[in-house]
Design brief:
- The chain has 377 residues and is of the alpha+beta class.
- It contains 14 helices and ten strands.
- The protein has two domains: 169 residues, no CATH class; 149 residues, no CATH class.
- It starts with a helix and ends with a helix.
- 37% of the residues are buried.
């Protein structure tokens, strides 16, 4: 039971931390680009820059972006948001915004006609402002109207063209997407701030970013998703290791129980051991008996614990039973993912610990003197 509980707890803990890491990574990379590229002398013709950057190996998509802060208000609410200027035709090759639309579409950003410009809002932001598609909002940015009193911020009216849900609270509650021309008017900039890239392998993003800087002779400055989110994933990795070590101590306690049980068994069976030895049993065979008993405990306990841990993790993940505050953890539920490597590592380690626990009592049993055991037994 000790081995079973320890292994089950360890499998579930690893599944929890692995699932949380994977879920956050996938949602972050679905909401943002894999690589961000700045140009030293500015991006004057983003179409040419996009075409050039897409020629680099492993680059799947490229899109320009303008980022700035703004205050968005309605008659029923207000919030500080990040305005992101995009090219709707290119943005869907870099992020999952196109597949994340819950109402409206990205194409409708360009359908304003003679009316006010249009904006896409995150689902949580729309809920805060109490707006739906077709409603009008006011956006206030530092870029305003020049007056005798200086530059005065000016509110601009925008129509809500769509509502998206990227699944990450940071974006769904604080981002608004507009077209590049609208972003230029809102921010006072006449060129994109950066180019965003998507690559075919997220784990090669750092390598691709370095290659772009090297091959452009420093003309481009790059930053990839691992650099931007290093502190987050480092903290998650450290937490995973800390939990694994802590719960692994349960397995160690179970191993100590095996040691204690076998020592008591040797003391209890010392007459039987002595009789077997007088009948010709070797010390090696006596040692194998007790090692086999400890290994049987380890195999059965580990098998039951690993199976139970995998089953509990699967049920918790499939039915999303553990709900968490999305504004704190960025996700609405705790995902559980059992990686084959983690599963095998836990099983092998537990059996190995149980085997090591049998060595001392088995050795003591093999060294038992039959004459002494029979004399004082």
């Amino acid at each position: 039971m000790g081995v079973t509980v320890g292994v089950m707890a360890l499998v579930i803990a690893l599944a929890l931390m692995t699932g949380l890491q994977a879920e956050l990574r996938d949602r972050i990379l679905g909401s943002t680009a894999h690589i961000f590229v700045w140009k030293g002398d500015g991006i004057r013709d983003y179409h040419a820059e996009v075409k050039r950057l897409r020629e680099f190996p492993h680059v799947l998509g490229a899109a320009p972006a303008i980022l700035d802060k703004a205050l968005i208000t309605t008659s029923q609410g207000k919030a500080f948001i990040t305005i992101k200027g995009i090219d709707p035709a290119l943005e869907k090759s870099v992020t999952d915004i196109g597949r994340s639309m819950r109402q409206g579409s990205m194409a409708s950003l360009n359908e304003g006609g003679d009316g006010p410009p249009r904006i896409l809002l995150g689902a949580d932001l729309a809920r805060t402002l109490k707006v739906r598609v077709g409603d009008r909002v006011q956006v206030l940015t530092p870029e305003g109207t020049l007056s005798p009193m200086g530059m005065l911020p000016r509110a601009r009216s925008l129509d809500v063209a769509g509502i998206f849900s990227l699944g990450l609270f940071e974006f769904d509650s604080a981002y608004g997407f507009v077209t590049m021309p609208v972003a230029e008017r809102l921010t006072g900039r006449d060129t994109p701030e950066l180019i965003e890239l998507r690559v075919d392998d997220i784990y090669r993003a750092h390598e691709v970013a370095g290659a772009i800087m090297e091959q452009s002779a420093g003309q481009y400055l790059t930053e990839d998703w691992t650099q931007l989110n290093r502190s987050l994933f480092s903290a998650l990795w450290l937490e995973k290791m800390a939990i694994s070590i802590t719960i692994g101590l349960i397995v160690m306690v179970a191993a100590l129980n095996i040691v204690a049980s076998l020592i008591l068994l040797v003391m209890e069976k010392h007459r039987d051991i002595a009789i077997l030895k007088t009948m010709g049993a070797s010390g090696r065979s006596i040692m194998l008996v007790f090692m086999l008993q400890g290994l049987i405990i380890g195999f059965i306990g580990t098998g039951l614990g690993a199976t139970a841990g995998w089953a509990v993790s699967s049920v918790l993940d499939r039915y999303k039973l553990i709900q968490v505050p999305m504004d704190v953890y960025q996700v609405s539920y705790v995902p559980f993912v059992v990686l084959p490597f983690d599963f095998i590592l836990v099983v092998v380690s537990a059996i190995l610990v149980c085997f090591v626990a049998t060595l001392y009592p088995s050795h003591q049993a093999s060294k038992l003197d039959p004459a002494e055991a029979l004399r004082y037994g």
